[in-house]
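If your schedule permits, I should be very grateful for your opinion on a structural question. I would ask you to consider whether the tokens describe a fold that such a sequence might reasonably adopt. Thank you for your consideration; the sequence and its tokens are set out here.
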Amino acid sequence: MGITGEIKKISSSTLDLFIKDPYLVDAFFDAKCLPESPYWQREPYWTGEYAEVAKQNARAIFGNTPAGRSKQWKNTYDWQALEELFLSEWENPELDLDKSWEEITFLLAGYIATYYNTPQGKIPELIVAKGYEKDFLPFLVIKNSQWDGKPLVNAFGAGKDLYFDRDYGPVRYLQAGDEVRQILDGLLELSQEGFKNRFIKESQKPNPVPWIDWSDEEMIDYMTDYYNEIVDYYETAVKEQKALLLYLT
């Protein structure tokens, strides 16, 4: 299976709920698999017993009192209204980067997640404070990089933590407006041509970054496809004034 990366558009009002009460993030992801969820319309190949079990499990746990909260937490919210809200959010699909989020983070932002403290894990200008132990670096965009003069764009690694631990670390968020716009502007300035040139430049080094399999002849094509999908997703988020969640699953 492997660890996959996803980006999800949500409304600013829903993000405000999460910031106020991060435990609601769990309910949000539970709602994705509810029997009524639009998610199932986009998953025609996930059918049969496993799909039905997933649906019923989601129904059974949606709105349950999370660990660390009192029993009164369940009575704090109108769960029917929250269910309708969360299901409406899932009408817009997430952007699935599959297992390529690590390569994408390097090619866009210049570092390998969790390995940026090694000499091979980042370009020289990405220096962080000693003792920084998060999976991703915190910047949005660094212009005129030492790498190739193009911006470093942290399109998957950016965002503030919601301090809610999914399977592989916290869900992070970008606020609608300026934060999402900065990333989009950086992506557009980098450009598809710049992205491909960056890939070629690194792959042709005598000792390219060792965590990426540069021998895959088709990688440049599907990495470029991911770049274009990310640009499209950010463009839509800016147009619709959406916030973004970024997470591993």
User: Anything to note?
Assistant: The chain has a mean pLDDT of 91. The chain has one domain: 5-248. The chain has seven helices and seven strands. Helices lie at 12-20, 24-32, 48-61, 79-89, 101-109, 178-203, 219-239.
